[in-house]
């Protein structure tokens, strides 16, 4: 079966750096997405990786290793507004998205 | 820029009633999706449409139906609601350079 694993919850301190990991087992691979979802709101697109390596976008970076079935989202200079759930999703060979359950990130002052 | 509009935003419904959740997009995206999101679970695909006039079943289609008469509208119907359909429902469309999803604000449905 297809599976996406990510930690349920993480806690970090304002101003610090946090890495949220995502491992996947899917039928084929056509890209990996990270979305941010604040409580009570809709998910919003953060990043996309289709080739191995690091994609940087401001304070957020996303890394992909296709051979390991592994990605991480790196958040730098954490701000209180970064408190949210972070969803990892993989597009499989049928171009369908397989979603992880999300990682709830709690930022403490 | 409206993006994707869902209605209603919240609804309490008696079991056995019929309910239609509305979804409209103004981005002219071909592909649209309906997901449900439940605590502790990932987004689960109910139905999708790759283009106007076509629909397909997702991971959890039972008890739900959709139609796609035109590019902009993609309503989701619960023919006879049951308590297990209590959830937050998100409509989405895909577009952009990466085909990322754009989500509506969600419809919170409670079936009693």
Describe the structure.
The complex is a heterodimer of chains A (109) and B (112). Chain A has 109 residues and is mainly β. Chain A has strands at residues 3-5, 9-13, 18-25, 32-37, 44-49, 53-57, 60-65, 70-75, 84-91, 97-99, 103-108. By secondary structure, chain B is an all-beta fold. Chain B has no helices and eleven strands. In chain B, a hairpin with a 4-residue loop joins strand 9 and strand 10 (100-103).
Fraction of residues in H or I helices of chain B: under 10%
C-alpha termini separation of chain B: 35 Å
Number of strands of chain A: 11
Overall geometric form of chain A: globular
Average pLDDT reading of chain A: 96
Radius of gyration of chain A over all CA atoms, rounded: 13 Å
What is the helix tally of chain B?
0
Distance between the termini of chain A: 40 Å
What is the number of helical segments of chain A per DSSP (H or I, 4+ residues)? 0
Describe the sheet with the most strands of chain B.
7 strands, mixed
The run of helices and strands of chain A is: EEEEEEEEEEE
What multimeric state do the chains show? heterodimer
Percent of residues of chain A in helical segments?
Answer: under 10%
Uncertain runs of chain A with pLDDT below 50, 5 residues or more? none
How much of the residues of chain B is beta strand, in percent?
over 45%
């Amino acid at each position: 079966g297809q599976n996406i694993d990510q930690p349920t919850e993480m806690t970090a301190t304002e101003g610090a750096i946090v890495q949220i990991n995502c491992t996947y087992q899917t039928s084929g691979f056509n890209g990996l997405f990270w979305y941010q979802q604040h409580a009570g709101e809709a998910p919003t697109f953060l990043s996309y990786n289709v080739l191995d390596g690091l994609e940087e976008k401001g304070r957020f970076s996303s890394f992909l290793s296709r051979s390991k079935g592994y990605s991480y989202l790196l958040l730098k200079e954490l701000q209180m507004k970064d408190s949210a759930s972070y969803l990892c999703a993989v597009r499989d060979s049928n171009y369908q998205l397989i979603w992880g359950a999300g990682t709830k990130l709690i930022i403490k002052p | 820029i409206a993006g994707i509009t869902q209605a209603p935003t919240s609804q309490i419904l008696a079991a056995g009633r019929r309910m239609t959740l509305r979804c409209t997009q103004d981005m002219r995206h071909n592909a649209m999706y309906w997901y449900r999101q439940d605590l502790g679970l990932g987004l689960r695909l109910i139905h999708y449409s790759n283009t106007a006039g076509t629909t397909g079943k997702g991971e959890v289609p039972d008890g739900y139906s959709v139609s796609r008469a035109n590019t902009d509208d993609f309503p989701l119907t619960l023919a006879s609601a049951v308590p297990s359909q209590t959830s937050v429902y998100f409509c989405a469309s895909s577009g952009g350079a990466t085909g990322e999803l754009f989500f509506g604000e969600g419809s919170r449905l409670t079936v009693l």
